[in-house]
Amino acid sequence: MQDPDRRTPVDVDGLIGRHLRRDRLAVRAYTGDALYSAQMRWLRAALILVDGVMDDEGIPAEVRERVVRCVLYGSPDPADAVLRMDAAAATVGTGLPVELRPPDRG
Fold first, then answer.
1. Which is higher by pLDDT, 4 or 63?
2. How far apart are alpha carbons 27 and 81 in whole angstroms?
3. Nearest Cα to 38, choosing from 69, 87, 70, 84?
4. pTM for this structure?
5. What is the pLDDT of residues 18-72, one digit of tens each?
6. Which of 8, 27, 50, 76 has the highest Cβ tally under 10 A?
7. In this structure, how many other beta carbons lie within 10 angstroms of the beta carbon of residue 98?
8. In Å, what is the CA distance from 66 to each residue of 23, 41, 50, 57?
9. In this structure, what DSSP letter does residue 75 have?
């Protein structure tokens, strides 16, 4: 008989959706900053893959969800994306290149 905790994938899309609903800055970054959006799409794919690997190793669903949640909430930083968007907006029409890295916060 198969362990009931196995073969039930973590709802990565649901966790990302909850993360975006709770953090308005993350929503702004996801919809307005191409780098942040790409990072989140890559992170989604990686979390789905890691969940499958943990499942194959017999890690219980509850533990897999906690791991996925910790990784999701720990990266990437939407504040950096907002800094990039603000910097990009400030350079529009100036002919200056847009810096993709956030300014040094001191």
1. 63
2. 11
3. 84
4. 0.70
5. 888 888 888 888 888 999 899 999 999 999 999 999 999 999 999 999 999 888 8
6. 76
7. 13
8. 19, 20, 12, 16
9. S
Phi, psi of 51 (to 5 degrees): -60, -45
C-alpha to C-alpha distance for 25 and 44, rounded to whole angstroms: 18
51: CB partners within 8 A, 6+ apart: 9, 10, 12, 64, 68
Q: What are phi and psi of 101, to 5 degrees?
A: -90, 145
Q: Tokens in use for 67?
A: 């791991």
Instruction: Give the pair of three-digit tokens for residue 31.
Output: 């919809």
d(CA 83, CA 15): 25
Sole residue written with tokens 């040094």: 104
